[in-house]
Amino acid sequence: MNYTKSDALHKEALEHIVGGVNSPSRSYKAVGGGSPVAMEKGEGAYLYDVDGNRYIDYLAAYGPIITGHAHPHITEAIKQAAETGVLYGTPTAHEVKFAKMIKEAIPSLDKVRFVNSGTEAVMTTIRVARAYTGRDKILKFAGCYHGHSDLVLVAAGSGPSQLGMPDSAGVPQSIAKEVITVPFNDIEAFQIAMDTWGNEIAAVLAEPIVGNFGIVEPLPGFFDHVKEIAHQKGALLIFDEVITAFRFTYGSAQNIIGVTPDLTALGKIIGGGLPIGAYGGRKDIMEKVAPLGPAYQAGTMAGNPASMLSGIACLEVLQQPGVYERLDKLGAKLEAGILAAATKYNTPITVNRLKGALTIYFTNEKVVNYEQAEATDGELFAKFFKKMLHQGVNLAPSKYEAWFLTTAHTEEDIEETIIAVENAFKEL
Ligand code: PMP
């Protein structure tokens, strides 16, 4: 494959855009460097780069593109938005229709509010939880990404029940000390942290099914305990469903694990590919938000007609019968092919899959928490990543990011991908 134009574009981008990318995860730093491939066109399950190379895409733009690129129904909705004015700064019928659709799919949401990104959605749930409880601290689980606001860019201290350290320059220590981080799926560490700080904690923030160090499901009963202990201490439970909502079922991961949070943050899929975030939850908590209550949150672009119409169209596609069964079937076929290739070539991998999302970890160990995901073989992954790219398969350049199937992928795409995986494993 020829990457002349991608290489040239990256060089030029480096002159003008910091690091040449508008989000650090797009750089190839974690896979040994090089120019990230610049895409020019998306169509169904495929992306085409500026040099004309075609890729079967499993990045799905880090999750939102579950219906494939340029889905006709969503494209039509975006055209309608373009033709009728993309922003009014007033209420619209679209946002009411969309709020009703989302509430119907996620019953724990009595009230919602639309914002522009997952970062904003999570950031605001924390503010609302603090306003409701009158407390400042939050507890989160190690390795779970919740956007780039100050409070959630905090890593664990050295023990299971220590206060956080800033995970980014520019995050004040005074903010980091309001954050407690414990390992995912470790109920004992959680209990210790809650015994120590529970009475100061406004909320426990969690992905109900982890999507950020690969696909990692909670151990049976984990979140039942988390919720019970949180509530005993007077803390709220916030689920960050930015990746998980509408991913595995028409609705949220909370519908799957059977644990209802007090507040939920949404993003990604619900925008059909346009910028969006949303948050919502119990009526008495949500009524703390302005203009009803004292917790302030606003947005010039919030609930904009284009994102609303695109989001409605996306959910309409996902409402069609058989969508999630098909994603599951294709996911199972892909997983089986990957595992068979690994056996054939003696490649040390573990696959975590739920429906149409999976992660290949380069390890023989089970992965149920961040420490284990972090300990997997990054060098082997980097080689694998490049070999897949050069065979026309686009993945995230990260050793524990998920592969996302879309409604546009076909059995043939999966078969082509399995052949590429076999070739890659053979050469590793
Ligand atoms: N929460 C989770 C679980 C996410 O995966 C992400 C983005 N990867 C965010 C929040 C932040 O969303 P955004 O990038 O739209 O700000």
From TrEMBL:
Output the HAMAP family linked to this UniProt entry: HemL_aminotrans_3 (MF_00375)
**Catalytic activity annotated for this protein?**
(S)-4-amino-5-oxopentanoate = 5-aminolevulinate
The record ties this protein, via Gene3D superfamilies, to: Aspartate Aminotransferase, domain 1 (3.90.1150.10), Type I PLP-dependent aspartate aminotransferase-like (Major domain) (3.40.640.10)
Similarity comment text for this entry: Belongs to the class-III pyridoxal-phosphate-dependent aminotransferase family. HemL subfamily.
What EC number(s) is this enzyme filed under?
5.4.3.8
Q: Where in the cell is it found?
A: Cytoplasm
Where are residues bearing N6-(pyridoxal phosphate)lysine located in the sequence?
K268
Keywords, sorted A to Z: Cytoplasm, Isomerase, Porphyrin biosynthesis, Pyridoxal phosphate
Q: What class of enzyme is it?
A: isomerase
Q: Which organism is it from?
A: Lederbergia graminis
Q: What is its main location?
A: cytoplasm
Q: Which cofactor does it need?
A: pyridoxal 5'-phosphate
Name of the protein described by the UniProt record: Glutamate-1-semialdehyde 2,1-aminomutase
Query: What CDD domains would the database entry show?
Result: OAT_like
The taxonomy runs: Bacteria, Bacillati, Bacillota, Bacilli, Bacillales
